[in-house]
Design brief:
This protein has 162 residues and is of the alpha/beta class. It has a single domain, classed as Rossmann fold (3-Layer(aba) Sandwich), CATH 3.40.50. The chain contains 4 helices and 3 strands, in the order H-E-H-E-H-E-H. It is globular. The chain starts with 13 loop residues before the first helix and ends in a 43-residue tail after the last helix. 23% of the residues are buried. The structure holds the ligand Nc1nc2c(c(=O)[nH]1)N[C@@H](CN(C=O)c1ccc(C(=O)N[C@@H](CCC(=O)O)C(=O)O)cc1)CN2. The ligand Nc1nc2c(c(=O)[nH]1)N[C@@H](CN(C=O)c1ccc(C(=O)N[C@@H](CCC(=O)O)C(=O)O)cc1)CN2 binds next to strand 3. Keywords: Multifunctional enzyme. It is an enzyme of class 3 (hydrolase). InterPro entries: Aminoacid_DH-like_N_sf (IPR046346), THF_DH/CycHdrlase (IPR000672), THF_DH/CycHdrlase_cat_dom (IPR020630), THF_DH/CycHdrlase_CS (IPR020867).
């Protein structure tokens, strides 16, 4: 039986691993653009002025820029209605240059988060927060969208290539 002393602690260098993954993604994005003329696009939607949310969103937009993913910034006012926000999500669903959508949480109290998240196209749900993606609803007559053949840069994006 293995004793505790048989196990050596390994220090994980998270910054190095993150940098390695980002470099790999940057290369995959470059190849995707070169081969198919398609640049992955991520829409980052933020509602209101919460400092923490703004900071997370800023980091996500910066990370996109670093690897060559085009980010579509949508900064919406705190007072936006649920119906208006859903309509913005629908616009992004229809935009062929937007391959991934994330809505920063939490949303203001007057907005039903689950309703908004359920309006994000399943194919563009980068957070995987859609009720179908988190398994709150059963998949009916649908093929799972995750395709292991897609490179990591587009794992959560769905880009149709000819
Ligand atoms: N659309 C989304 N909204 C929110 C998410 C999300 O994943 N998608 N998560 C949080 C906010 N958030 C990112 O947006 C986030 C919060 C906290 C952390 C985290 O790892 N915290 C660590 C500290 C990390 C560090 O210091 O480097 C911790 O708490 O231990 C990551 C992401 C809500 N909204």
């Amino acid at each position: 039986m293995a004793s505790q002393s048989d196990h050596k602690a390994t220090v994980i260098d998270g910054k190095f691993i993150a940098q390695t993954i980002r470099s790999e993604i940057a290369e995959e994005v470059r190849q995707l653009s070169e081969k198919y003329g398609k640049v992955p696009g991520l829409a980052v939607v933020i509602v209101g002025n919460r400092k923490d949310s703004q900071s997370y969103v800023g980091m996500k937009r910066k990370a996109c820029a670093e690897v060559g993913i085009r980010s579509f910034d949508m900064n919406l006012p705190e007072q936006i209605s649920e119906a208006e926000l859903v309509s913005k999500v629908h616009e992004l669903n229809e935009n062929p240059d937007v391959h991934g959508i994330l809505v920063q949480l939490p949303l203001p109290k007057h907005i039903n988060e689950e309703k908004v998240l359920s309006e994000i196209s399943l194919a563009k749900d980068v957070d995987g927060f859609h009720p179908l993606n988190i398994g709150k609803l059963a998949m009916k007559d649908r093929e799972p969208l995750s395709n292991p053949a897609l490179p990591r840069a587009v794992l959560n994006f769905y880009i149709e290539v000819e």
